[in-house]
User: Which sequence fits this backbone?
């Protein structure tokens, strides 16, 4: 469903992605793991064309995104749910309005949008915070709000950019469960980027290792957990980048 | 030499990007009902500052100008009409514009930069919402009208405080510096043109600075700085272009 | 509460806030003055920052000064064309550049650029707890962070004012020739005859006052920052706005004195 081939993305002189290749099929939950500045965020954003590749091919659900028309790109984006690393919560809207924004933009009537948003917020455990503004929420609650916004449109392509950062292990496990449940329900493809692989190992089908803009390894999750060599290599890279 | 060429090329590209942003913001319709609250917000934020600042500016114009005229001609009161004309044509709009650039420019740049850094701009794009239409267009339209109002407020404030100060400092008769005998419609035309131009330039420069912000909190501070400075410089450049143009056209 | 009373309350609160700000800035200024004669003063840092501020703003201020020189000629041009008073051009440029518009615009641009960046840097240090760290090891932030910047900003704006004035005069002379047909000898004569040393001194004093105000206000804004990215932006914004108001007030104060 997602087919990234040899994609390079440059910002000025720096290459954030260097010849990255990734395939993810329908029904797969793929973890993308790597140190900071490895290119995880850029990869996820490129998949929904928030960054345009300078080289390579990008085919998502049969659509060649690099040569797609704006209308085709918009249609594809309407099937994507993205949870941003920096949350991207709209400061002036309360929780329900933040989540409903996505639906209203897809043409759903305001009343129905608010109802579905409220329901989604209840599912992530934010029933008590429907009318709160983002700055009134704790870190964990903000993360769940961002998650709710990504999931409310029932996306076939779910992209999560490090939803675990700054959370304690209990909260991490909760987020991982939400991601997995939603993935099973939607039946589409889910990509989760994370600096720390631990929360992903229970829920992911595959784990991809990124470093310096390139994909270094692509393993089934259980092999990643077991293989001491892969872990040691990952730790070694983390140290080098720290 | 190559460095100079690179700088020139970079500036030309930047100017092009600014004009493109302005065109997009001007042509794309803002969300319904977003302009009026923005306008109200802008005016509420800037009028107090402008009135306070222009009161001092008006007083300084009277004192400095009066002193100089005293040196040359002996009687400051005689040139009150000329002073008023300068305030209407030049000091009111331009200093009002610089103060507005300080307040509006920093406000708009900081707001948009904070959104950019927290990826709200990306979130908008993913929802097929156009960030320029949502964020820049309402601010552009609101600033246009706000600057016209602010120009008027600034001019009136400076004129009255100037007259008051001249009375105290030089004992001129009340109203000497409110003498409208030299004023022609062209003066008001030039003033309005300047304010309109500032109202377009300030939010455009500030929005561009904000949209380019990437990274962390440092980027927000950097964008705020850039928004303010670019806005002030734009006001000064437009002042010269419009003032010089008016001079040539005989307005 | 009636609307009038609410408005009055807001105005009163704003005035009190302004007075408190001014007081706070003065206190900080006094601490800087004391720090500058203490052995802890980081003169090397002051020198480095002066270079950064001065050279960093040189291009902007030179460009602004050139524009201001031309604008003053345009202003005078109104009366030259109407009354044929060619001799006033040199005089108007001189007094405007040195005493009036020149220092004011230079101060506003400088505070917009350096003051804003200053506040943002110090605010970022605050949000990263770097200043708390200094305090924890018994180091006072004022002689290490604030006083060097205050000294640096004052020195650099003064230097920029002098350089900028020279640029502005040349630009005014060129503009006078191009736009009004006033040739260089006539411009120079009118300039020299009417411009006095006190004009330059007034402009220099204004520059020093403006820079000090911008430095103290921006440092204070940075030191009071709390929060994350939005706090840094808020500090920069507040620094710029408050400096502008302080500058305009000082402009009047110096004008009255001189």
Assistant:
């Amino acid at each position: 469903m997602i087919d990234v081939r040899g994609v390079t993305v440059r910002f000025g002189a720096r290459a954030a992605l260097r010849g990255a290749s990734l395939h993810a099929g329908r029904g797969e939950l793929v973890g993308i793991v790597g140190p900071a500045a490895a290119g995880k965020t850029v990869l996820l954003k490129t998949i929904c064309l928030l960054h345009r590749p300078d080289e390579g091919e990008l085919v998502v659900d049969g659509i060649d995104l690099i040569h797609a028309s704006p209308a085709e790109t918009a249609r594809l984006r309407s099937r994507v749910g993205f949870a941003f690393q920096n949350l991207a919560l709209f400061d002036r809207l309360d929780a329900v309005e933040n989540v409903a924004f996505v639906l209203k933009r897809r043409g759903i009537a305001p009343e129905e949008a608010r109802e579905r948003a409220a329901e989604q917020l209840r599912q992530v455990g934010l029933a008590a915070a429907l009318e709160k503004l983002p700055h009134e929420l704790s870190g964990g609650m903000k993360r769940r709000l961002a998650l709710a916004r990504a999931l409310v449109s029932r996306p076939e392509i779910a992209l999560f950019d490090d939803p675990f950062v700054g959370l304690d292990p209990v909260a991490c496990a909760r987020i991982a469960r939400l991601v997995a449940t939603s993935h099973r329900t939607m039946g589409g493809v889910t990509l989760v980027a994370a600096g720390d692989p631990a929360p992903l190992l229970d829920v992911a089908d595959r784990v991809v290792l990124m470093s310096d803009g390139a994909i270094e390894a692509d393993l089934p999750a259980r092999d990643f957990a077991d293989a001491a060599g892969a872990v040691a290599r990952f730790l070694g890279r983390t140290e080098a980048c720290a | 030499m190559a460095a100079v060429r690179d700088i020139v090329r970079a500036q030309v590209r930047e100017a092009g990007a600014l004009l493109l942003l302005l065109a997009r913001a001007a042509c794309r319709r803002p969300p319904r009902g977003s302009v009026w609250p923005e306008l109200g917000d802008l005016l509420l934020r800037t009028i107090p500052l402008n009135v306070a600042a222009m009161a001092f500016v008006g007083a300084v114009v009277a004192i400095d100008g009066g002193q100089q005229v005293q040196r040359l001609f002996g009687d400051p009161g005689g040139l009150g009409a000329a002073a008023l004309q300068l305030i209407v044509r030049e000091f009111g709009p331009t200093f009002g514009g610089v103060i507005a650039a300080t307040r509006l420019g920093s406000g708009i740049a900081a707001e948009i930069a904070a959104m950019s850094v927290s990826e709200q701009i990306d979130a908008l794009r993913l929802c097929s919402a156009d960030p320029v239409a949502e964020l820049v267009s309402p601010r552009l339209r609101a600033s246009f009208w706000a600057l016209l109002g602010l120009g008027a407020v600034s001019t009136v404030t400076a004129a009255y405080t100037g007259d008051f100060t001249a009375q105290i400092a030089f004992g001129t008769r009340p109203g000497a510096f409110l003498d409208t005998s030299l004023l022609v419609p062209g003066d008001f035309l030039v003033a309005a043109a300047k304010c309109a131009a500032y109202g377009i330039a300030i939010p455009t420069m500030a929005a561009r600075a904000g949209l380019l912000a990437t990274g962390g909190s440092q980027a927000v501070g950097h964008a705020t700085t850039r928004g303010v400075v670019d806005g002030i410089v734009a006001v000064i450049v437009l002042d010269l272009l419009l003032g010089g143009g008016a001079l040539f056209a005989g307005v | 509460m009636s609307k009038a009373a609410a408005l009055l309350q807001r105005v009163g609160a704003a005035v009190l806030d302004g007075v408190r700000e001014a007081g706070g800035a003065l206190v900080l200024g006094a601490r800087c003055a004391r720090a500058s004669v203490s052995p802890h003063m980081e003169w090397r840092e002051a020198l480095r920052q002066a270079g950064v501020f001065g050279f960093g703003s040189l291009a902007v201020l030179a460009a602004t000064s050139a524009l201001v020189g031309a604008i003053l000629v345009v202003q005078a041009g109104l009366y030259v064309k109407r009354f044929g008073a060619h001799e006033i051009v040199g005089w108007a440029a001189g007094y405007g550049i040195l005493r009036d518009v020149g220092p004011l615009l230079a101060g506003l641009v400088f505070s917009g650029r350096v003051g804003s960046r200053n506040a943002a840097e110090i605010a970022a240090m605050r949000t990263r707890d770097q200043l708390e760290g200094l305090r924890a090891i018994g180091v006072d932030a004022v002689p290490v962070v604030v006083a060097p910047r205050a000294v640096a900003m004052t020195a650099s704006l003064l230097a920029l004012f002098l350089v900028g004035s020279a640029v502005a005069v040349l630009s005014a002379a060129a503009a006078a020739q191009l736009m009004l047909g006033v040739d260089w000898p006539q411009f120079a004569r009118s300039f020299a005859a009417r411009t006095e040393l006190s004009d330059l001194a007034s402009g220099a004093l204004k520059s020093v006052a403006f820079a000090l105000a911008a430095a103290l206000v921006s440092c204070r804004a940075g030191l009071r920052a709390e929060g994350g990215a939005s706090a840094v932006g808020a500090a920069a914004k507040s620094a710029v706005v408050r400096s502008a108001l302080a500058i305009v007030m000082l402009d009047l104060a110096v004008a009255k004195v001189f």
Remarks:
- Chains A and C do not touch (no CB pair under 8 Å).
- The mean pLDDT of chain A is 86.
- Strands of chain A lie at 2-11, 14-24, 29-33, 55-60, 63-64, 80-83, 157-161, 189-194, 206-211, 214-220.
